[in-house]
Amino acid sequence: MFAKIATATVATGIALLAASTSASASPQITKTLVPGEQWCIGQYAYFQARGDGMATNQGAKFKLQYNGVTIPWTGSPGLVTNWAAEVRSSLGTFPGAGYYSACATNNGTMNTKVTLQIRTDGEFY
Question: What element of type H or E holds 103?
Fold first, then answer.
């Protein structure tokens, strides 16, 4: 009887671990922004971070932030419909371990549908 309970407990633990691992992967998240609205998503990184964004209509202004401060070279040049920026310790561009955010701002005159994704560490190569 004890062996059956232990087996069930281990199996349940493995299932929970698998669920939590897949849940930690960064999905793409979509939101409609009205003119003037900004939206950010983020997560912690130890050695690298990457933000990706897409926008409809006139586009959006995108940027990557480290602990709430914009990393200067990561912003889009204005309203764009596709954007990506990354910082890596292997390239000397990673400011340090901390909280990274991908942000989009609708500086246009009409609503725009924005999709953002932030990936860190082992989530991209």
Answer: strand 98-105
Altogether, the residues listed in the chain come to a count of 125
Q: Alpha helix (H) ranges present in 25-124?
A: none
In the numeric block, which tokens belong to residue 99?
């909280």
Q: Per residue in 76-97, pLDDT tens?
A: 999 999 999 999 999 999 999 9
32 neighbors 106 (Cβ within 8 angstroms): no
**45-85 confidence digits (pLDDT tens):** 999 999 999 999 999 999 999 999 999 999 999 999 999 99
CATH class of 27-123: mainly beta
What three-state secondary structure class fits 77?
coil
Rounded to whole angstroms, the Cα distance separating 120 from 66 reads 12
End-to-end CA distance of the chain: give it in Å, rounded: 46
Domain map (residue ranges) of the chain: 27-123
